[in-house]
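User: My collaborator and I are trying to settle a disagreement about how two of our proteins should look. Neither of us wants to argue from intuition anymore, so we agreed to look at predicted structures for both before our next call. Could you fold the first one, then the second, and keep them clearly separated?

Assistant: That sounds like a sensible way to settle it. I'll keep them separate. The first protein:
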Amino acid sequence: MDGITADEITAKFRELMTDENRTIVVQGLEADDTKHLSETEARDIINRVSTAKLTPYEDKATGTSLVSEELKGSAVVKTVVLPQFDAVEWTLANNVKVVYRKADYEKDNIILSGFSFGGLSKLDNDLVLPGMLMPSIIGMYGAGDYDNITLQKMLSGKKATVSLSLGEVTENVSGSSTPKDFETMMQLLYLKLAKPRFDQEAHNSIIGRFAAMIGSQEKNPEKIKSDSVSLITTGYNPRTTILTKDNISKITMEQVQKVYNDRFHGADEFTFFIVGNVEKEVVLPMVEKYIGSLPVSNRKETWIDRKVNQPKGKITKEISMPLTTPKSTVYISLSSNMKYNPYNYLGLQVIQGILDLVYTEKVREDQGGTYGVRIGISGVKRPEQKAEGTITFDCNPVRANDLKAIIYQQIDSLVQEGPSKVNLDKTVNNLLKNREENKMHNSYWVSTLNRYYSYGINSNDPKNYEDILKSFTVNDIKKLSGQMFRKADVVDLIFKPAQ
């Protein structure tokens, strides 16, 4: 490999890249209002490039450190040992909390995570769309003094990432690195939060790409289904954002900057977690230097309940749409009031597992009606304590209603009679087995710490997990199923081919 020269690569490229035996492929959606490249236009593009004067790429000098200035940092002023997690909590002088846990299950992995309360719920309606897309857009700006191309060059050969995102009620930071590149990850965190970069040229480029991509998908049946589900299940709430070429094109850099500066304004609103194969003696000075130098806001925030809820009662719709492949999609959404606690949300996981077994047997195997029924059932605490579920599958259009009837029959059976003991035991054993496997991964400990700090629940404690799962009886799941399904608000949709 070392013997291959740049000149040899260039010579081989010129040998292969000839005008003979060239095939040009143009692809896109079929639509009356869509104009594709003609053969002449495609050839013109190639000719313009081949005759253009192209100057060699000029490589900008890059250093080894992403942060060039001296950082004052902040010392740890309070330490709390967390023996239940084999972890430690540090409070820095700038009032930022950092929780650290050494874990060497994955030798080459360190995970960084962080959250604060607020999220999209704190944004006015006109900023919800920029807020949703901000994480993707901001990543293309670069960070600090570096545009995105330069930043990626500086990260070449390193395994370190940091990204930001907005949930409905939280701001989130996530990152990962190898032990060798831990400091690079901490430098990225510092740049993202203390030295955000806003680049108009990069903004125009990414918005143009996003708009073109969404524009090409606007008649895609899967997007139409997804948009329909979003609108119907939220009662056409004005905060429900549907991506279109037009509304993406209108997102300005000033809007992105406003969202970014407000939601990631102060590090003291965050709790950070660092879990992985790195020693305390390495982590502590890095935390004090980089997280200790982050700006703070001295504000305390919570979220707002914007009342973006599923409509009350039951909504049933059949939606016809042009489809190349004649199939129907059945989509059922359910929402019920339910307290968020370990007993309830673990019970919902068991119900999901049982229904997965039942639908595989009754709908897929016995009826041969679909490749699989997709089920998601979970408990949520914020902005309201609820149990939420979705059940969806694709099938032959003529069988949609018959197969959907089986879905409801099995739910009714669960509510009236409870599950079979065999299915209950199988589901509980699967959850317990997965639990033991998950404990050997850093992501388990990050999510466990996150739940403890954001919900006040120690899910690593057997009494909040194993003991509850092992205690569930057929009658317990029957009762929980009744809570979930008896008074649930339901959106029942069938997407079918237009006649």
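The second protein, kept apart from the first:
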Amino acid sequence: MAHYQTVALAGSAVGLGPLGQELAEANESKDKQKVEQPKLAETDQKIAIGKDGAITIPAVAFSKPSGHFAAMKSFAGGMQIHGTGGFKAEYAVEVPQAGKYVLTARVVTVQEGQKFRLAANDAKAPVEIAVPYTIGKWQQTQPVEFALAKGKNVIQVALADGSRGVSIKEFTLAPVK
């Protein structure tokens, strides 16, 4: 019985042609679309120094951003950035004491293969580190060590080309003891 119903249904099939093209990515304009960024409050961009000397830099405290990214509210409170390969930004930070610091980023990813390129104060070559595959949960990156001067320092952050979706909550600079 099931066999004959299948044959009957197959024989009465109607050619529908291609469906859903209006929803497919292939039909989107090749022109770059501008993502409207939310207004950032001064409190969202405030850099904090802890009692232990660790400096917490919110991801939205950037200057000179470029590439594909969006600042958005975070379920954990405050703001976060979601970026893809080609995203670049600079973070100006006042360091109270010269010395060596390790930089980590608090990130979320849902796939493997993302990489950061990090540099401090116009270093000749950036340090490239893998962004951990976090399965959608907040996690710290591996630490990268930088020698920073007392006063203003600029940290350059970039997502390597080919990176596909990294959310960044904050960066932490901790003094090396």
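Some points you might bring to the call about the second protein. The chain is about 5% helix and 40% strand. The mean pLDDT is 85.
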